[in-house]
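# step 3/5: fold
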Amino acid sequence: MHSLQFTAESSSNGMVERDFTVGDVPGVLWSPAPGTDRAPLVLMAHGGGNHKKHPAMSGRAGSS
């Protein structure tokens, strides 16, 4: 069984972005900054030829 390992963290525009791996599979967790009433959002998808942090992917984390 593989465990989740956070590898980096940054924050901007009210969102916290944390890179992680599960085994050798990378991912990104976008969640609201502390003090906001929004639930975390995990996007797990192939970037369609784009990087997982391409604005087309990361922009979804800030919407809703």
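# step 4/5: annotate
The longest strand covers residues 4-12.
# step 5/5: archive (pending)
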